Amino acid sequence: MLRLSKLTDYATVILSFMARDSKQVHAAMEIAAATGIALPTVSKILKLLVNAEVLSSTRGAKGGYALASEPERITVAAVICALEGPIALTECSISHQGCEQASGCGIRSNWSVINQAIHDALESVTLADLIRPAMVPEEILIPVASLYR
């Protein structure tokens, strides 16, 4: 099963909160209170996002954290990479050195294709997409009479 860590999940919650007012500078305590995520966890995530240049930080009394770019330019792939490292389904997607079977592997290039497709899909979704209200499909009505034909 492909699964992201809780930290990555929390990072999307934090960034979604920040993206709703993307020009605002937010303090870690404010983010923790607004999201319900513990302050030490928020602080750890903010540091990782600053290191990955997803966020910028400002010190001082009026300091805090802000998005480094507009929500439309921050991709889900960038967030995942900031928290998890490179997107890779298999070890050989990152490096061939960790696999004893690499020299005779006939499917390595296929994993690369799959990995790239997933990476491209995650690159196509932005923080702006995450904060848009979900589109709920309209109710589908099937006339009862049509069921008895």
How would you explain this protein's 3D organization?
The structure is a single chain. This protein has 149 residues and is mainly α. It contains seven helices and two strands, in the order H-H-H-E-E-H-H-H-H. A hairpin with a 5-residue loop joins strand 1 and strand 2. Helix 1 packs across helix 3 and helix 2 packs across helix 3. It starts with 5 loop residues before the first helix and ends with a helix.
How are the elements arranged and paired?
Blueprint (H helix, E strand, L loop, with lengths): L5 H14 L8 H8 L3 H13 L3 E4 L5 E4 L8 H9 L23 H16 L3 H5 L12 H4 L2
Antiparallel strand pairs: 1-2
Helix pairs in contact: 1-2, 1-3, 1-4, 2-3
Class inferred from helices and paired strands:
mainly alpha
Order of helices and strands: HHHEEHHHH
List unreliable stretches of 5+ residues. Answer: none
Question: Which second-level CATH architecture applies?
Answer: Orthogonal Bundle
Shape: globular
Quick overview:
By secondary structure, the protein is mostly helical.
Features:
149 residues; mainly alpha; Arc Repressor Mutant, subunit A; 46% helix; globular
